[in-house]
Amino acid sequence: MGLKSWWRNYRARAALDRKSIELNENQDLIAAQVPELTDMTSVEGMAYVLEQINEWNKDCTPEQAQELATRLAASQESFTADGLVMPYWGNLWVLRTYQLELGLDVPRVAPPNNPAP
After folding, report:
1. What pTM was computed for the model?
2. Which of 38, 58, 69, 95 is least surrounded by Cβ atoms within 10 Å, i.e. has the fewest?
C-alpha cells in the first residue's frame, strides 16, 4: 500500500470516527430517538443506560435476556458494517423497542426505520 493510499484510508477512517462521536453527542438526535435521555450529559446518559439494562436483566426471563443480547449484537454489527461505533444511547433504544414490543409500560422511543415483518 502506497503512502497516498494509506493517507486516503486514514482520512476516511478519521471521518467515520468523527461521525461516531457526533452521534454520541448530538442532543437533538438523542432527544428525537430516546427522549428519556433529554437534558442528561453523556456521562449521566451512559450511566442511566447501564442502569436500565441492569434492571431489565434482573427482571426478565433467560429467553428475554438472550433476545435482547441478540438484538444488541445485531445493532452493533449494523453500525460496524457502516464503519461506525453504535452510540451509547442506541443500547437503550434497542431495549425500549423490545420492551414496547412485549407490551411493557416503558418510555417511548422513535420507531424503527425498517420494522420486522
Report:
1. 0.84
2. 58
